[in-house]
């Protein structure tokens, strides 16, 4: 118990953090600035190859940095070895040793450090009890359920008394049902332990379910930082709106705007429809909702596909069919004007403006979640 009770959480800050794997290639992580509050659940989110794992590995100390700094509670840890940083990593599908019992898996890093057997078993057993696994301490991973394995992996990461837990796609190898159960459990443990979690995922749904703070990345840059609510309701760029899904992008005199697909009105000519003309291409029944796919005419290819999400009752009252010509409209208040996005066009280097904007965002998140 004491091993965990005495652990404290820490804030992480990265300043102009950069990784270039080879000279002359684009930076995998390009001068990013980010502050993650102590005790918060932060998700790094973005498509494959955008630099999430590289960022996490640099924080962990498993990857050298090409530039910039990493601070843990204002202490510069950039050049410290991984084991001296106060961070610990939990890997995809938990990566437990199959031939070792739960307690030996948890005790493993203490064995590497030369801690005596009785002492390391005592500490590992304490931690397994802490994650409600004390009664299964002698089982091997193959004799445990996915949820139980996750708790062993968590205990194994916690035995080094980290102040920040780093998780790289910890759920992505699980089947969908287990994944949803496990993410709820991760969230509960993060709250119970009060530790800072930094969790990498390419799933916007997973990030929205877990995060206090979402960091949306694109091409080695941060596009947006905010609570799930802020990011979903105020996407900063077309990239974020499209990556998060559930949004349509339209060109207006005010520039590109995003409108949530559940905030759209749809009507035929006969029903007095006005607005953007479109043709229905697909109708997809989803249970609570029905997703209508449409194509706009006379707009750029990238803007053609849009969608409307209707409640099941609204759809049953007026069932739309593929091929119907309709008009789409929306309230101006539901328009979100989109910026260019850093991944599309980075402002002239090294401008202080983006980092201070991100910091303001972080302050806003703290206020929002307080
Ligand atoms: P993500 O985790 O978001 O999918 P990564 O951080 O793994 O992205 O990769 C970011 C970019 O860096 C990609 O273009 C990837 O190909 C490249 N990259 C990652 N690891 C290495 C490596 N060890 N050597 C060279 N390039 C790498
Ligand atoms: Mg990755």
Summarize the structure.
By secondary structure, this protein is of the alpha+beta class. Helices cover 31% and strands 28% of the residues.
Explain what the structure shows.
By secondary structure, the protein is α+β, with helices and mostly antiparallel strands. The chain folds into three domains: 9-20 and 29-77 and 163-233, Rossmann fold, CATH 3.40.50.300; 87-161, no CATH class; 247-337 and 353-367, RNA polymerase II/Efflux pump adaptor protein, barrel-sandwich hybrid domain (OB fold (Dihydrolipoamide Acetyltransferase, E2P), Beta Barrel), CATH 2.40.50. 31% of the residues lie in helices and 28% in strands. The chain is built from eleven helices and 18 strands. The chain has helices at 2-5, 52-60, 102-112, 117-130, 146-158, 176-193, 204-210, 228-233, 238-244, 312-317, 352-369; strands at residues 12-19, 29-36, 41-45, 67-72, 75-76, 87-90, 164-168, 196-201, 213-218, 221-226, 247-252, 255-260, 265-267, 276-285, 289-296, 305-311, 325-329, 336-337. Strands 6-7-8-3-9-10 form a six-stranded mixed beta sheet, with helices on both faces. Helix 3 packs across helix 4 (117-130), helix 3 packs parallel to helix 5 (146-158) and helix 4 packs across helix 5. The model is unreliable at 1-6 and 350-370 (pLDDT under 50). Magnesium ion (MG) is lined by residues 52-53, 200.
CATH homologous superfamily identity of the largest domain? P-loop containing nucleotide triphosphate hydrolases
Strand arrangement, largest sheet? 6-7-8-3-9-10
Number of helices: 11
Number of strands: 18
> How many domains, in number, for the residues?
3
Radius of gyration, Cα only, in angstroms?
Answer: 24 Å
Please give the alpha-carbon distance between the first and last residues: 28 Å
Q: Which ligands occur here? A: adenosine-5'-diphosphate, magnesium ion
Task: Point out poorly predicted stretches.
Answer: 1-6, 350-370
Beta content: 25-35%
Largest sheet: 6 strands, mixed
What series of H and E elements makes up the topology?
A: HEEEHEEEHHHEHEHEEHHEEEEEEHEEH
């Amino acid at each position: 118990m004491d091993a965990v009770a005495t652990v404290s959480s820490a804030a992480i800050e990265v300043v102009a953090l950069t990784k270039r794997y080879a000279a002359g290639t684009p930076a995998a992580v390009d001068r990013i600035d980010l502050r993650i509050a102590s005790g918060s659940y932060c998700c790094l989110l973005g498509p494959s190859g955008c630099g999430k794992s590289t960022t996490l590995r640099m924080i962990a100390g498993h990857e050298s940095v090409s530039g910039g700094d990493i601070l843990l509670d204002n202490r510069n840890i950039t050049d410290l070895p991984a084991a001296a940083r106060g961070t610990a990593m939990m890997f995809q599908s938990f990566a437990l040793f199959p031939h070792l019992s739960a307690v030996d898996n948890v005790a493993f890093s203490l064995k590497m450090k030369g801690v005596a057997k009785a002492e390391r078993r005592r500490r590992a057993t304490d931690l397994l009890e802490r994650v409600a696994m004390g009664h299964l301490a002698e089982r091997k991973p193959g004799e445990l359920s996915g949820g139980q394995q996750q708790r062993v992996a968590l205990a194994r990461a916690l035995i080094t008394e980290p102040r920040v837990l780093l998780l790289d796609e910890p759920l992505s190898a699980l089947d969908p049902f287990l994944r949803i159960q496990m993410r709820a459990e991760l969230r509960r443990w993060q709250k119970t332990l009060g530790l800072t979690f930094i969790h990498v995922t390419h799933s916007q749904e997973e990030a929205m379910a877990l995060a206090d703070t979402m960091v949306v990345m694109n091409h080695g840059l941060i596009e947006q930082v905010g609570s799930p609510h802020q990011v979903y309701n105020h996407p900063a760029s077309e990239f974020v709106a499209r990556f998060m899904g559930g949004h349509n992008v339209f060109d207006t005199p005010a520039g590109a705007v995003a409108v949530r697909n559940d905030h759209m009105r749809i009507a035929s000519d006969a029903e007095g429809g006005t607005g953007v003309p479109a043709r229905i291409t697909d109708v997809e029944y989803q249970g609570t909702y029905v997703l209508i796919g449409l194509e706009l005419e006379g707009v750029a290819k990238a803007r053609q596909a849009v969608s409307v999400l209707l409640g099941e009752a609204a759809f049953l009252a007026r069932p739309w069919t593929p091929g119907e010509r309709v008009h789409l409209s929306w309230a101006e208040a539901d328009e979100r004007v989109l910026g260019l996005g850093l991944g599309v066009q980075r402002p002239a280097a090294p401008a202080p403006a983006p980092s201070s904007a991100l910091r303001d965002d972080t302050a806003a998140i703290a206020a929002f979640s307080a």
